[in-house]
Amino acid sequence: MKRTWLFSILAVFLVFSLNSSVLAAKETGKTKEMLYLTGYEYVFAVDPETEEVTEIPVTGMTRDIVFTKDGHRLFVNTDIRQKVAIIDTVKNIVIDELDFTKDNYRSRIYGMTVDPEGKLLYAMTMRSIVEGTELKTLPPAILVMDIEKKEIVKEIEVPYGVHVLQFYEDGSKIAVWGRDLYEYDIEQDTLTLHYELFDPDDKSAGRSNYLLLWPRDQETDNLAATVNYVYYPETGETTEGFVTWDLKTGDVERIEYKEEPIGFFSGIISRDRKTAYGGMNMLAKTNLSTLKHDKVIKTKLGTSYGFNISGDGKTIYAGGGGPDVNFYDAETLEYRGTVDLKTDAMDVRVVQIKQ
Questions:
Q1: What structural domains and CATH numbers belong to the chain?
Q2: Is the dihedral of CA 23, 29, 32, 34 positive or negative?
Q3: What PANTHER family does its record include (predicted)?
Q4: Is residue 288 within 8 Å of 257, Cβ to Cβ?
Q5: In whole angstroms, what is the distance from residue 42 CA to residue 252 CA?
Q6: For residues 110 and 145, what is the distance between their CA atoms, to the nearest angstrom?
Q7: Above 70 in pLDDT, residue 24?
Q8: What is the average pLDDT score of the chain?
Q9: pLDDT of amino acid 12
């Protein structure tokens, strides 16, 4: 009888201890930083601490990467922009695939985003339909797919030129990047012009032309940013900088450097919004108070496409343009090393995976 009583007490103690451990783990909010690069027939998962590379096989060339808030699911545009591979970032394996080209419809994906709950994928598509022997083009549209059911539940027509979609932090709206910036309101089901960039009414403001292939958002605490060039027809002057879209407030800002353009493919802004990094054949660190470069270096291995930043703000990652990802010190721009990959890559995204 005494032994049974002791075992009961021990069992209760163990259950309480296990529950406490689980709660404590949840409360710590620990995350694991991983890098994901899009390559040919592979997505590369790189652990920046150990430099270990996991090769994740996919179909064909990969393009856009988006991920859920907790970092547990990665959505990658594959197979000539027709499909989306879903990757489990804990196991680093493909667990499912979404196909946007079915029956007589042909769709090519140019930008996508996933809702905060991870249930709906919004894909910007260029579409056509085969009718008999004819191929007819359809207006571009955002196709909304129920991820679990693999069914398209909504179509949202958009202007030509849209390429990037990004959810506002609260999930109420989507930032729609085209030649100008549009805002899609989820509840109201409305698409409205949010900010004129390409051909503003005020001609003295200049005309913007920005690169849409390497967007950033979650890496910088919901400050969406992309490299931007502004041309002033009256003077022939061209400036280099960024256009940012605050996905918390909706504010858009055009940042123009007080320096001669040196050529950027992509860039990233620090979480404190004080420093910007941009690169291509060069890597520049820019003070956003003075709008002047603190330092400019040549990239170690030549042209890089995608530039990104670590969660602690201490490391700049350069990936794409070659079969590697390179590390630089964010403060000094000192080269720290290279991790080799199996194929050339297109971009590098930094994902914080909740543990």
A1: 30-354 (2.130.10.10)
A2: positive
A3: DIHYDRO-HEME D1 DEHYDROGENASE, PROTEIN NIRF
A4: no
A5: 35
A6: 15
A7: no
A8: 91
A9: 40
pLDDT in tens, 25-53: 344 579 999 999 999 999 999 999 999 99
Q: What is the pLDDT of residue 294?
A: 98
Tens of pLDDT, residue by residue over 269-286, are: 999 999 999 999 999 999
Q: In this structure, how many other beta carbons lie within 10 angstroms of the beta carbon of residue 145?
A: 21
Q: 181-185 and 190-195 as β-strands: parallel, antiparallel, unpaired?
A: antiparallel
Strand partners, 315: 329
Ramachandran sector of residue 333 (left: φ over 0; alpha: ψ -120 to 50; beta: rest): left
Burial class (CB in 10 A: 0-12, 13-18, 19+), 37: buried
DSSP 8-state secondary structure symbol assigned to residue 216: B
Question: Rg of the chain's alpha carbons, rounded to an integer?
Answer: 23
* Residues 76, 43: Cα–Cα separation, whole Å: 8
Say what percent of the chain tops pLDDT 90.
85
Q: Which burial class, exposed, middle or buried, applies to 65 when counting CB atoms under 10 A from its CB (0-12, 13-18, 19+)? A: buried
Question: What CA–CA distances, in Å, run from 299 to 17, 276, 305?
Answer: 51, 16, 11
Residue 74 corresponds to which amino acid? Answer: L
Q: How many helices (H) and strands (E) does the chain have?
A: 1, 27
- For residues 140 and 127, the answer to whether their CB atoms sit within 8 Å is yes
Fill in the amino acid letter for 340.
Answer: D
Q: pLDDT for 103-141, tens place per residue?
A: 888 899 999 999 999 999 999 999 999 998 899 999 999
Helix (H) or strand (E) holding 16: helix 2-28
What pTM value is reported for the model? 0.90
CA dist list (Å): 78 to 65, 119, 141, 162: 10, 20, 19, 19
Q: Exposed, middle or buried: residue 325 (CB in 10 Å: 0-12, 13-18, 19+)?
A: buried
Find tokens 């590369």 and name the residue.
Answer: 44
CA 343 to chain centre: 20
Whole-angstrom CA distances from 158 to 140, 155, 193, 215, 247 are 6, 10, 11, 19, 20
Percent of the chain with pLDDT over 70: 92
| Distance between CA atoms of residues 23 and 112, nearest Å | 34
